[in-house]
Amino acid sequence: MVLTETLSKAYKFFPEKRAIVCGGERWTYREFYERVNRLSHRLKKWGVKKDHKVAILHPNCHVFLEAYYGMAQMGAVSVPINTRLSPGEIAFILRDSESRTLIVDPVFKDKIDAIRREIPNIEKILWTGKEEIRGGPIDYSYEAVLGQSLATEFPKTSLSDDDIAQIYYTSGTTGRPKGVMLSHKNVTAHALGTIAEIHLTDRDRWVHVAPLFHLADAWATWAITWVGGTHVLVREFNSRLVLETIEKERVTLTNLIPSMLNLMVNDPDVGKYDYRSLRVLLSGGAPIAPEVVRKIVETFKCDYIQTYGMTETSPYLTLSILKEHLNKLPYEDRLRFKSKTGREFIGVELKVVNDCGEEIRKDEKEVGEIIVRGDIVTKGYWRLPEETARSIKDGWLYTGDIAVMDEEGYVTIVDRKKDMILTGGENVYSTEVENVLYMHPAILECAVIGVPDEKWGEAVKGIVVLKPGQSATEQEIIQFCKERMAHYKAPKSIDFIEALPRTGSGKIHKKGLRDPFWANYQKKVH
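^ that's the sequence the OP posted. Answer follows.
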């Protein structure tokens, strides 16, 4: 199956149903479908063909949904770009992806103007919004060209489900961004899996809060459309705005990264809103502390599902949905399972293996690397065959995530391979230390990294953001940790900052925190 069929089905069965809510504007599936056709007709007129790349630099907005589908039905490839990137990084992606057309919000005009000479491959720029943009001969108004184009059904393009639908560039937390190629099969198989796993229907109303240039939210574009649900779009995250939107638009579900949920449950006005429409909250993109899960469940009084995935897997690999017999456990035990990374997603085969490639024991003690295969797994990295060969071996994608597994088959990620701290010959997993730090009543957010230490090779450092109006000292927090875990795991130092740096997908940018400490060192362990 190809992506275009998901919108065609919604248009066929729900033409007058509300499809999109974005700010003060609303569109039915008929109107959504017509706008997508207008975009495809215009791009075809400009010479965009199958396999051509069209980049999107935009905050969350209806334009994103239109562009995704407008490209797909032409056989063109969408290249969403992280809006937080510097002009130079944006130019790199535009060149590397060989994009010919760019759809962009005027808020990024300065960034684009700064790199025009560096992106000669860009033949057309479509500016969204209602204000007139004064540019050059390649600059056009998105709304104007849609208004001048046909709304009739776009002629079917001959597509295979193995054709590339999107290229998502990784956030670059481990180095140069890599373009992850996802096929029509990858994303439709994932959409179908989420429909089955989360029981999506036309009654669902999904709020897009996490950025649509990242798959943590973008996957819902196809799943929610397929069932005829409603897309509610929030331009950017603001805890108060999201809480208001849930009440106003009667949102039924969404996916939020843990830091967003943490800010929402700690918002002073969280108790003022009506959340009875919510049936499930999903969270992924980073590990989550059990104490945060407890607050989420008690605040929103709906189901909670922890998710784990990667861009390379479209994205879900696991969900913390409880097996039927586990639902009969006492509340605290259910909460413990809900806080785990989860059991394998319906669309994938998952194993945790040791360095010899053997499956680990299901005892929650032995650690190994998560490897996966299935229809949702990427074909590889754009123009990087050697990198593809390193990551995908004999059909298995090696994730780089270190985990344990319990007897029920639920995995718990203990760290990224690159984030594991080796101190005095002992492995310390940053997630374990962060979970203890989150138990401290004064801590809002935290990150744990390894820093150079002449005696131990690496020392555990906690970087902490305190809750408004709260105070705590370095020694107090270190002692708090020592009382709850082995002393070698406890931080040897604590830094206090106002906000943690993040990637465009909302993940804590640990590489950015760690690199300044290692600038003049090589790792060594005694």
